TrEMBL record:
Topology term for the membrane: Peripheral membrane protein
Entry-linked SMART domains: AAA (SM00382)
Protein name: ABC-type xenobiotic transporter
Residue ranges annotated for the ABC transporter domain, each copy included: 7-232
Compartments, as annotated in UniProt: Cell membrane
Similarity annotation: Belongs to the ABC transporter superfamily. Drug exporter-1 (DrugE1) (TC 3.A.1.105) family.
Biological process annotations from GO: response to antibiotic
Keyword Transport recorded: yes
This protein's UniProt keywords: Antibiotic resistance, ATP-binding, Cell membrane, Membrane, Nucleotide-binding, Translocase, Transport
Length: 285
């Protein structure tokens, strides 16, 4: 395992009966990065995250998380790996503050509960009962419980499902704050704009294997992909031209129009375009 790696996975396989969930998955995640796992329903993302957490067994393959095998975790390792459960805090009459303080007692060196409540933006709700929180506030509390032990690695499975756009952006800020503190973060998501906004690197999983890996801006040759120049013709109808040299195309258009080019746009494949191509579902537009 290279120094600076938080996670190393080689040839990971997992079947559930006849279903092959993971079919030789490889992953390298560096310490301190935000790493996104993308892939269609049933691709194997949750299975991967659960194996990394030590909550699901594997059939074969090597897995190292913070230098240890999650299949044989010790107490110290467990304190260093933060897990965000959906609705960990669901059925309780306790207040937010009581819940966070209660969970802090499980860890050898917990973070300060008041600081964690502030980190997730629940200060105003510290004295509210958990059952009175909204769905988004409950998820923030789940994150608070995931980080109260002061983990070096945080695993999040679809953390913002069901969030409104404002709550989602607030959650992104929380992830960025945790990342700036040095926490390695692995998250699965179906929101490509979330992956693009948060992840330093992404892996696209399809049918239990990694089909592409890299920074969102250059995944699968995205940075080198041909551009499309769009403009409006004299009749107002949009024209477009795909080109490897968009500057030359724009220069020649500027000459032709003798100045401003009406309706000028230069586009490159979006993360969604690249993602759909990778999973074999190209948009036929
Ligand atoms: N406990 C289980 N028993 C049987 N099959 C399972 C179990 N958990 C997952 N599977 C199957 O394994 C495959 C991978 O599932 P997994 O939940 O890892 O996918 P996922 O990428 O997280 O999907 P989603 O995006 O829908 O959450 C699927 O075909 C799923 O039906």
């Amino acid at each position: 395992m290279a120094e600076g790696d938080a996670v190393r996975v080689r040839g990971l396989r997992k079947r559930y009966g006849d279903v092959v969930a993971l079919d030789g998955l490889d992953l390298d995640i560096r310490a301190g990065e935000v790493f996104g796992l993308l892939g269609p329903n049933g691709a194997g993302k949750s299975t991967t995250v659960e194996i990394l957490q030590g909550h699901r067994s594997r059939d074969s393959g090597e897995v190292s998380v913070l230098g240890a095998d999650p299949a044989a975790p010790d107490r110290r390792w467990k304190a260093r790996v933060g897990i965000v459960w959906q609705d960990e805090s669901a059925v309780t009459e306790m207040t937010v503050g009581e819940t966070v303080r209660h969970f802090a007692r499980y860890y050898p060196r917990p973070r300060d509960p008041a600081e964690v409540i502030a980190l997730v933006g629940l200060e105003a709700k510290a004295r509210s009962r958990v059952k009175e929180l909204s769905g988004g506030q409950r998820r923030r509390l789940d994150v608070a419980l995931g980080v109260i032990g002061g983990p070096r690695l945080l695993l999040l499975d679809e953390p913002t499902t069901g969030f409104d756009p404002v709550a989602r952006r607030q959650f992104w800020e929380l992830i960025r704050t945790l990342a700036a503190e040095g926490t390695t973060i692995i998250l699965t998501t179906h929101y490509l704009e979330e992956a693009e906004a948060l992840a330093d690197r992404l892996a696209v999983i399809a049918a239990g294997r990694v089909v592409a890996e890299g920074p969102p801006g250059s995944l699968a040759g995205r940075a080198e992909a041909r551009a499309t120049v769009h403009w409006a013709g004299p009749d107002g109808v949009e024209r477009s031209e795909e080109t490897g040299t968009p500057t030359a195309t724009v220069t020649s258009l500027a000459r032709r129009f003798d100045g401003e080019i009406p309706g000028l746009r230069v586009t490159r494949p979006t993360l969604e375009d690249v993602y759909l191509r990778l999973i074999g579902q190209e948009d036929p537009r």
